[in-house]
Amino acid sequence: MDAILSDWLLERLDTDAPEPAYRQLFRLLQQAILSGRLAAGAKLPSSRTLGADLAIARNTVIQVYEQLLVEGYVETQSGSGTYVADTSPDRVDEGSAGAPRRAVRDRHRLSARGKRTIELSGVSKQQWGAFMPGVPDVTEFPLKAWTRLQSRIWRNPKPELMTYAPGGGYRPLRRALADHLRVARSANCQPEQIVITTGIHQSVDLAVRLLCDVGDQVWIEEPCYWGLRGILLSSGLKLTPIPVDGEGINPDAKHLARPPRLIICTPSHQYPLGMVMSLARRRMLLEYARQHNCWIIEDDYDSEFRFGIRPLASLQGLDTNGQVIYLSSFSKTLFPGMRVGYMAVPAPLADLFSLGLAELYREGQLMQQAVLAEFIDEGYLNSHIRRMRGLYAERRSLLIAAVQRRFGDALPVMGDEAGLHLVLGLPHLRDDWAVCRTAMERGIIARPLSAYYSVAKAAQVGLLLGYGCVPNEKIGPAFDTLADVIEEVSKAGRKTRRSVA
C-alpha cells in the first residue's frame, strides 16, 4: 500500500511548480481521502518513509499530517501511526419510499424572484465609450485635490472611521449635503434627515423594504429606468406604468381612483425622455399624495447639469407635508465607481431609515465619506460641477450637430436640455434593438428606447445616446459609424417589409 500511494503521489508532485510541496502534498492526500482512494481506516506511511519515497523533507510530511489531523481527515493512535478517518457523511433522509426526487437539473433553478431579476436585467457589458448613457467623464475628476484630502485623512485615521457606519453615515458629510441641497436644489432638510447609501439602487431598495409590503401598488413613469423596474418587481410589488406627457407623469381618472403606496418619478429631468414636470403637475401630485397618504420618491439623478438655465428646484422643496423622499448620488457629478448616494427623508422617518440601513446592509466606507465631506466643504464639488457643465454643453452641441449633419431634421432629438444623454427618435424604424446590436459589433454603445417601456405596444423607437464620457474629437466619427448602422438597418427593414407585402 505504501509503495502504491508513493507512486501515485510521485506522478502528481511537481517540484518545479510555484505551489509549495507542502500545499501540493496536502491537496493530493485530501483528494485521495475524499475520493475513496484511501479508505477509512487505511494506515498512512510514516513521515520518514513517505519523505524518502518522495524526496522531500520529513518535516514537510509531518506538517501535512498535522494539518490533515487538524481538519479531521486523519486520526492518530498512540504508538501505532496515522490512519484515515471515517469522513463519510451522515445518512440523509430522502423521505418515504417512492417520493419523487428533485432532478439534478433543478439544482441551479432560480427562484421566481431571481428569474424576474435576471429577465429584466439591462446591464451593459461595456460601461465606457461612445455613446454610453449616464456615464460622466471620469478622466476629468480632480484627482490631485481628492488624493491630497485622502492622504491627509489617512495620515492619522480615527478608529471610529474604520468601523461600521452608524446613524445614516458620516455626520459632517450629512451636514455638508444638507447645506448643498438647500442651496443647489432648494430642498428643505436638516442633516438628521440625510441618509448615506451606495447609490440610487440601494436607496430605492431601502425605501421599498421599509415602506412597502409584497403586493403593494407602485406608480412608475412610462417609460422609466430599467434598473428601478427590476428592483420593484423583484420585491413583489405591483407596478402601474403611468404615461408621461410634456409636463411629466400624467395619471388619468382610472389611475387616480386607485391610490398607490408609492409614486416614483423623475421631476427635474424625466428618464429617459427628458421632459421637466410642470409646476401644476407637481402641485397636483403633492396634493394627491397628501390626500391619499402616498409616499413620493423623487429620483433627482442628474439635475446638476442643465444647459442655458439654472437647475430647477426639487419637488422635495415644495413638499410641506413630509410626503417626498429625495434620492440622488455622486455617480454623475463625480464618478460611478465611488458608489456614494444619499437620501433626504421626512423627519419622522429619519431615525427609522438610518436604523434600517445599518440593520440590512452594515454600511461602512466612512473614510471615503470623510474625504467627500472635506471635498464639498473646500468647494471642489461646486467647482467641478461648474466646469463639467460647460464641457458637457460642448459635447451635447457637437452630438446634435453630428445628427443634423447626417440626418437634418428627419430624426428628432429629445431630452437634450439637461443631463448626460439625449434621445434620438427613429420614427421610420420598428426595431431599435437591431441598431444597438449592430452598433455594438462596431464598438459603439447605444441603448434602445423601447427597452425602457413596460408596455411594448406603447413603446417609442429610438436610441439613448450618452455624450458625457466621449472626448470632443471622437463624437463626430463615432456618430458617423452609428449613422451608417441606422441607415443599414433602415434599408434592411424596408426590404423585409416589401418582401412580406
From TrEMBL:
Please list the coiled coil stretches: none
**A Pfam family name for this chain?**
Aminotran_1_2
Molecular function in Gene Ontology: DNA binding; DNA-binding transcription factor activity; pyridoxal phosphate binding
According to the record, the residues making up region (Disordered) are 81-101
The record's section on SUPFAM superfamilies has: PLP-dependent transferases, Winged helix' DNA-binding domain
Lineage: superkingdom: Bacteria
Print the keywords alphabetically. Answer: DNA-binding, Pyridoxal phosphate, Transcription, Transcription regulation
DNA damage among keywords: no
Q: Mind telling me which PROSITE patterns this protein's record contains? A: HTH_GNTR
Annotated HTH gntR-type domain ranges read 19-87
Protein family membership: In the C-terminal section; belongs to the class-I pyridoxal-phosphate-dependent aminotransferase family.
Stated name of the protein: DNA-binding protein
